[in-house]
Amino acid sequence: LEQIDMLFFGGSAVSGITSAVYSVARSILAAALLHAVCFSAVKEPWSMQHIPALFSAFCGLLVALSYHLSRQSSDPSVLMSFIQCRLFPKFLHQNLEESAADPLPKKMKDSVTDVLKWDLIVCAVVAVLSFAVSASTVFLSLRPFLSIVLFALAGAVGFVTHYVLPQLRKHHPWMWISHPILKNKEYHQREVRDVAHLMWFERLYVWLQCFEKYILYPALILNALTIDAFLISNHRRLGTHWDIFLMIIAGMKLLRTSFCNPVYQFINLSFTVIFFHFDYKDISESFLLDFFMVSILFSKLGDLLHKLQFVLTYVAPWQMAWGSSFHVFAQLFAIPHSAMLFFQTIATSIFSTPLSPFLGSVIFITSYVRPVKFWEKNYNTRRVDNSNTRLAVQIERDPGNDDNNLNSIFYEHLTRTLQESLCGDLVLGRWGNYSSGDCFILASDDLNAFVHLVEIGNGLVTFQLRGLEFREYNILYGNVSQTPLLDQK
After folding, report:
1. What predicted TM-score, i.e. pTM, was given to this entire model?
2. Confidence band (pLDDT; 50, 70, 90) for 401?
3. 8-state DSSP, 187
């Protein structure tokens, strides 16, 4: 269900089976509503000089719904808490008093309220503007010149925003420059204690992203929708219902992806234009369907590339010291089965299943199909002291509890901080290019933390946080903590 929502409807990752059913159901409901409106608009042929008002209303509704869905979390409990707040305020007030130590529920309730109020205004404005632009016949009267201009502009803006600027901010741009070209004000500080200064290139990055997400790609997709609808109204390819269904699914998916995270959209767009407009023009159905299929194909190819990089790095002969003694013998026996491993990697990329090494060796096994969320079970690390622990437990407690207690304090503080700053830092480009499923390691001299991005929405991020212990005899912490120290030296 998660893959269906991500690949065909443009959704992001989910947090569980209930979240997956909820996400797919709301996407199907939105597609059914759009299908009813669009069918009434294209069932009769129409000319280039007059676009039906019903189709213009369909364009406005499509953009508004896609924007609204991109702003909503896949977790239905967030919306249910808002409904409970409005319908049963006494019940919610009692729950908030019981969980007064956790400020997250109240913050999420306030955030949902603000998002719904903002969406009510923005969706109305977006629908009216999309209706006006579509009804002006500018897309049909200026073709194909408008399409060429939009293609070139989207490719150029995407290349600068998602490739040039992130490379200039890396520690080693293009792996041949020793220092970042665009440095933050705090770059030379050992430990930053104040809020990071907002730099000019961060402002530029945000403005370019806003122009790309809210103006460029909606105009590009509305242009393709209008041309496809005009062709469907005059020439049926697969039947009216199938043509409309494919057009709606492609339009919704591309719009939601552009609103949520358009990092790789310019690559998909550039390949679509070059491949279907120059190399193999005869096999092209329409630009919208070509763009839709290429986005799915490149998503799977990216997953395949990451898996191949992991496999080739793990089975390299000079990495034998990483594994056990069995790794040395298994290396020789695994060479004749390299072709099988390659096809196994392709299968795991298609079905989005993990590829795990067996006994730390070069033999890989395929796991079951699982969601993007890495840790399926939710853990809560809480502080333990005399106020919430029985005396018998304090007497018989484990000596390692003191370390765990220190860990819980640090992780709780780090979690609260990330809840307030992570989404803003991602938007400003301080974490580089990112997508759903990415992992980051936050390193310090005393403790490291592992951040896993689960859901990437338009203005919201769902993440998981796991920590690596204080104790020096922890092998994992020791290996990870050596990396930043060597880099500093």
Report:
1. 0.84
2. low
3. T
Please give the structure tokens belonging to residue 333. Answer: 């026996």
pLDDT tens digits for range 183-225: 888 888 877 777 888 899 999 999 999 999 999 999 999 999 9
Considering Cα of 297, then 37, then 126, then 287, what sign does the dihedral take?
A: positive
Residue with structure tokens 């393709």? 224
One-letter amino acid of 447: L
Amino acid 134 reads S
Token pair in block for residue 131: 């209706």
Residue at token pair 């938007």? 427
Residue 180 burial (CB < 10 Å; 0-12/13-18/19+)? middle
Q: Which of 231, 304, 229 is nearest to 58 (CA)?
A: 229
Which 3 state secondary structure label does DSSP give 15? coil
Question: Using only C-alpha atoms, what is the Rg of the chain?
Answer: 26
Domain ranges of the chain: 2-294, 315-366, 386-488
Question: Per this entry, what is the length of the chain?
Answer: 489
Distance CA 192, CA 163 (A): 27
Q: Are 228 and 265 in contact (CB under 8 A)?
A: no
